[in-house]
Amino acid sequence: MSNVRLPNYENLPTNADGVRTAWGVFGDAADSVGLFNQLTGDVVQSAASLVRKGTVFSLNAPLDFYTPALFGRPSLSREVQPVREWWGLNEVIDNFNPQSSTQWDGLSHVSYRPDHFYNDASLDDVLSGGRNTVAHWARRGIVGRGLLLDLARVADAAGRSYDPGSSHAFSVDDLEEARRAHGVTFRPGDVLLLRTGFTAWYADANAETRQRVASREELRACGIAHTEEMAAYLWDSHVSAVASDCPSLEVWPMDHSPEAFPFGCLHQILLGQFGMAIGELWWLDELADDCAADGVSEFLLTSAPMNYPSFGAPANALAIK
Asked: Burial, 196: exposed, middle or buried (Cβ in 10 Å; 0-12, 13-18, 19+)?
């Protein structure tokens, strides 16, 4: 944990590409925790004070909710193993992809450039040494202030409908509009949650549509815009993580053209340069309804990712109000 005061985006150093970088910002060149370092004891205590009515919301979709699994990932299968002639039950879950449902992208999920992960960790550092894997978060746990921006509800109230199953990009202005509508301000270390309505869209989709969007090539999904302005906004908010209910957080498909580098794939910046955790496919509708009902969009957020040197993991997240 660290009490380092983060510089603003415009004061971050630049790398050889002229891109702003946060490598070494916490003083340890081998740091693998990233912006979760901001979750100090004081931050956790302050977040705990947000629990006022004792209502708990699971932010986790069923592991098999997205079936077929998105991005061409294998779908879960289960082998039931009886114990003592069915006196008990064990099981083996096959084709378990840690990122097939509500999940964190670890800092080793996407590099800034090949062989240059967060804090300039090499591929060998990740695979052999466990640098930037989810285990570093799991060993300390994730507890802090959660903040929900309900982009879908705010857009609906303004009469601006959009299709979550299209490449609809949310701008910085959209996020700011929602923040002002909810009457909230950012605090260092916040876990920012963005509700886009993709979960409800997917729940209503027919089998043919679900089959189509399971393909990486055929998938279209809303998300935050691929812009430097968005990267700067998220950094200057000093959140520790940003998560949404859509498949990639950022609008899909990404733009991997040389002309769009590096902001055409914000994962390369948020994970690879900032050390900012990314959450995807989070289960936010029930929480959003409660926030709309009581007018409170901040809460205690906890997450216990699996303690394994993986590149992503189920979020195992709760919001407590």
From this structure: buried
Rounded Cα distance between 196 and 309, Å, is 30
Question: How far from 251 is each of 48, 103, 133, 301, 309, CA to CA, in Å?
Answer: 33, 17, 25, 25, 28
Q: How far apart are CA 4 and CA 275, in angstroms?
A: 14
Confidence of residue 1 (pLDDT cuts 50, 70, 90): low
Query: What tokens appear for 115 in the block?
Result: 């062989």
pLDDT at 38 over 60: yes
Task: Note down the domain range covering 91.
Answer: 9-320
**How many folded domains does the chain comprise?**
1
Reference 143, options 305, 297, 307; nearest CA is: 305
277 occurs within a structural domain? yes
Judge residue 55's burial from the number of C-beta atoms within 10 Å of its C-beta, 0-12 exposed, 13-18 middle, 19 or more buried.
Answer: middle
Pairing of strands 142-150, 88-94: unpaired
Q: Which of left, alpha, beta for 275 (phi over 0: left; psi -120 to 50: alpha)?
A: left
pLDDT at residue 3, as a whole number = 76
Q: pLDDT, tens digit, for every residue of 129-168?
A: 899 999 999 999 999 999 999 999 999 999 999 999 999 9
Gap between the Cα atoms of 312 and 315, Å rounded: 9
CATH number, domain of 71, equals 3.50.30.50
DSSP 3-state assignment of 225? coil
Decide if 311 is inside a domain.
yes
CB of 135 closer than 8 Å to CB of 147: no
- Residue 4: pLDDT band with limits 50, 70, 90: confident
Given a contact cutoff of 8 angstroms between Cβ atoms, the answer to whether 169 and 226 are in contact is: yes
| CB distance 147 to 300 below 8 Å | no
The length of the chain in residues reads: 321
Q: Quick check: is 268 in a domain?
A: yes
Residue 3 included in any domain: no
